[in-house]
Structures are given as C-alpha cells and as structure tokens.
C-alpha cells in the first residue's frame, strides 16, 4: 500500500508538468515547426525563386490566421501579419523585441552590425551612421554621385544596342558606395572588392550549415576576404586622419573613425566599423539597384508614366547649363519621379521581410511568443492589402502625392517608426540621379519577359535585357 501511495505521489508532479506543457503549447501560435534545422526554409526559398513567396505566406495566413509558428533558417519562428503586427515589430514591443537577423546574415555580416544591436548599443551605432547619412550631410555628396552616374553611363550604356539592366545598376550602386562611403576609387582593388561582395551576399538567406560547396560556406569565405580588405582601408585612413592628411567628412569610414565620445574615446569599435560597413554595402547596393531596375522595367510598360517622368526630368535638364552637375535643389524638384519610385517600392519591395527576436515570453493576439524565438514580418503583405491600398495590383503613383495620407506602419520598404532604415535618404538620392540621366539620355524597350524571382532580392529574367537608343532633349 505504501509503495502504491509513493508511486502516486511521485507521479503527481509529472502530471502537473504535462498539463502545464499542454496548456502552454495551446497558447503558442498554431502551425508546425517541421523538420529540425530545416523546418519550412526550403519551402520558402523555393517559393521566392518561383516568384510565389507572397502566395506562400498568404496561404499560411489563410490557414492559421495573422500569427503562426514555423521554423526558418534553423530557429523556431513566429510569422506576424498586418498593420498592428508591423507596429508591434518596429516599435520594439516595449523592449520585449530585440534586433536579430537569421544566423546566416549574423555570421556573414558580423554580430555587431546595426541589425543585431539593441538598446544603448543600437542608439549609439545608429546615431553614428545617421550623422553621415542624414540629408544635411548628404547634400555635399550630390555632385560626386552625379559624376559616378555619368561616368557609368558613358562606359556601359553609351554606344550599346542592348544592355542587361540589373547587373549594370548593381555595378553602378557598388561604385557609388565605394566612392562616397569608402573613398575607394576605381581600379583593381575596387573590382576585386566587387567579386567578393557578390559572393558574400549570395548566401545571406541560406540554411546555416557550414560545409564546403554550399552558398553559406562561400559567403562566409567571401565575407572574411572583405574584412581583410576593410582592415587595410581602415588602417590607412586612421593614419591619414592622425597626420591631418584627410578630412573626417570625406567618406563614411573617415567619419566613423573621427567620432569620439565626451571622454575622447572612439565612439565605435573597430569590429563595429567593419560589421556596419558590410551592412551599409548590402543595404546601399541591393535596395537601390533593384529599385532603379524595376523603375526602368515599369517605365517600359507604362508609356503615360514614362512620359510624365520624362517631362519632369527634361524641365530640370533644360534649366541648367549643359554639363553642369545636378544639385540638391534639382533633386527636390523631382517630386513625381519619387512618387513613381515609392509606388514601385510598394509593389516590388527589394526586401522581402525581416526578423526580430523575443527577449521574453510575449503575449500577442491571444498567444505566447516564447523567449528566444524569431519574429518574422513580410513587407509586401500590407503593401498589397486592398483594405489599405485600394486596387493594390494597379500602379498609381498618386497614392504617394501626400504621404501623410498613407496609414502608419503599412508602407514599410525601409522599415518603420524609430527603426526606419538610416540609409533611406542615400537611396533616394542615387535613385533620382540615376533615373534623371537614364530618361534624358536614352529610350528603351524590353527584350525579355516580365518574370522575376527572389534570391532573396527580386531578380528579373535575363537581368532585364533591354534594347536602348540614344535620345536628345526635346
């Protein structure tokens, strides 16, 4: 009898634990974590490459609702959807949500980049980057950007009958980054840098299994080579600043090296400079190149919109002496062109989505997001919501004539709230300068179909092959 009683008493804690686990599991969002490590990663990546990723996400939303669990890139994840979800993610959930990207992005870019930092570290590093990327600072670089765009068009577009737009816009934005952000002029080192950079970004959304011949492995090795190059550049610029042979405002690296706190201590560590330079490279290269490419694609398909953009840009060109560079004031006149860019970003956002991490158990929409889980949000889901943007499949730049009329946390190609991308203004400048010279110097028509896949950025088939011809001001 005593043995039976003892067995019963020992079994009670087990029963209570099982009941607590069942109760907790019912409160975790619906869905499945799938196969360990792999989860739903391969399904999402296949859908992205087939240009059906939004459909893949929408099917999950239809099946499970606006919040569901899955496993992506080796970690348990909660997918959240809608305006309230975007606000929840970008406002930080009262410090319950921390910045965190996938393991692959973290390992390739480094764990001290802005996307991985939270709290005081995030504010400190973001403040350092914003001091260079804010409009007041960028005004002085418009002429340099203008010079890079004109040189690029003369080398790669002029005299050609056909071009592949995406590879060329990637080369253009990379050259702008090298020149303005790193002070790295054209030559062998810049070309080598580009090869390593392209290899690095290929594996940023990949399953983090580090074995030879995988995308992840190739990206890690390319990232290490880039870091070696950056160490040399940073060392050289540090010496130049110490010898007063360079200005702290001549490029981003010099700017970051020259920043000190009230005690005279350098504001950012050397590792933070390396990791955030790689982040800025990716953000400034991919977002703008994809945006410029899709504007060109759109203008080829929308003659009326092309005509309106051309008229605005020709008026600016005619108001200037021939050969004179664009100015900040010229860019401020390109209002219609920027609404076209914004509508392009709404329909074809370069960034598919992003990740955060729950720092504590979070109560959200009647469920618990467990501590340590990833939170995944998808850019296009609110962009293509007909309750937010009527007739979302229709291209209408006038939606953005008054940006205040767009509901907050619904248009999020650059994030939202205090988490908006600090490079937003930089992307705007290089996009407008590039489009100005493209539409005033060339006309084009598509030679390829309109299909594109995501890898993870949108990639048009054949790199968007177009037939081009020179044009003069009408």
TrEMBL record:
- Cofactors named for this entry: heme
Q: Which GO terms describe its cellular component?
A: membrane
Task: Give the matching InterPro entries.
Answer: Cyt_P450 (IPR001128), Cyt_P450_CS (IPR017972), Cyt_P450_E_grp-I (IPR002401), Cyt_P450_sf (IPR036396)
Signal peptide span: 1-25
Q: Which SUPFAM superfamilies match?
A: Cytochrome P450 (SSF48264)
Membrane topology classification:
Single-pass membrane protein
Protein name, UniProt field: Cytochrome P450
């Amino acid at each position: 009898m005593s043995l039976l009683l003892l067995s019963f008493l020992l079994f009670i804690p087990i029963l209570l634990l099982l009941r607590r686990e069942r109760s907790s599991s019912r409160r975790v969002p619906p869905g499945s974590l799938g196969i360990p490590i792999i989860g739903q990663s391969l399904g999402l990546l296949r859908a992205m490459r087939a240009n059906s990723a939004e459909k893949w996400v929408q099917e999950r939303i239809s099946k499970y609702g606006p919040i569901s669990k899955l496993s992506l890139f080796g970690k348990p994840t909660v997918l959240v959807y809608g305006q309230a979800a975007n606000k929840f993610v970008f406002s930080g959930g009262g410090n319950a949500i921390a910045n965190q990207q996938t393991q692959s992005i973290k390992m390739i870019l480094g764990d001290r980049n802005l996307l991985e930092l939270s709290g005081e570290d995030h504010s400190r590093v973001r403040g350092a980057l914003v001091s260079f990327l804010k409009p007041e600072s960028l005004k002085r670089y418009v002429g340099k950007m203008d010079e890079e765009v004109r040189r690029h068009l003369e080398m790669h577009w002029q005299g050609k009958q056909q071009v592949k737009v995406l590879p060329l816009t990637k080369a253009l934005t990379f050259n702008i980054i090298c020149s303005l952000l790193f002070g790295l002029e054209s030559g062998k080192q810049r070309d080598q840098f580009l090869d390593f950079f392209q290899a690095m970004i290929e594996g940023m959304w990949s399953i983090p299994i580090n074995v030879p011949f995988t995308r992840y492995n190739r990206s890690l090795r390319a990232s290490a080579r880039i870091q070696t190059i950056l160490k040399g550049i940073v060392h050289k610029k540090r010496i130049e600043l110490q010898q007063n042979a360079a200005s702290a405002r001549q490029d981003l690296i010099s700017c970051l090296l020259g920043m000190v706190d009230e005690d005279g201590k350098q504001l950012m560590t050397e590792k933070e400079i390396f990791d955030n330079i790689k982040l800025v490279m990716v953000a400034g290269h991919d977002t703008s190149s994809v945006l410029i490419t899709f504007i060109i694609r759109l203008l080829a398909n929308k003659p009326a919109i092309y005509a309106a953009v051309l008229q605005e840009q020709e008026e600016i060109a005619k108001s200037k002496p021939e050969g004179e560079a664009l100015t900040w004031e010229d860019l401020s006149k390109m209002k219609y062109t920027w609404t076209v860019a914004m509508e392009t970003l709404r329909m074809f956002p370069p960034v598919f989505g992003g990740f955060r991490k729950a720092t504590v158990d979070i109560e959200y929409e009647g469920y618990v997001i467990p501590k340590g889980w990833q939170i995944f949000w998808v850019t296009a889901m609110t962009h293509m919501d007909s309750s937010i943007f009527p007739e979302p499949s229709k291209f209408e730049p006038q939606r953005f004539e008054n940006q205040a009329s767009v509901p907050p946390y619904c248009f999020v190609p650059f994030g939202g709230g205090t988490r908006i991308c600090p490079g937003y203004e930089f992307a705007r400048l290089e996009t407008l300068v590039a489009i100005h010279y493209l539409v005033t110097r060339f006309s084009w028509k598509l030679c390829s179909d309109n299909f594109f896949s995501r890898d993870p950025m949108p990639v048009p088939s054949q790199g968007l092959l177009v037939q081009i011809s020179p044009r003069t001001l009408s």
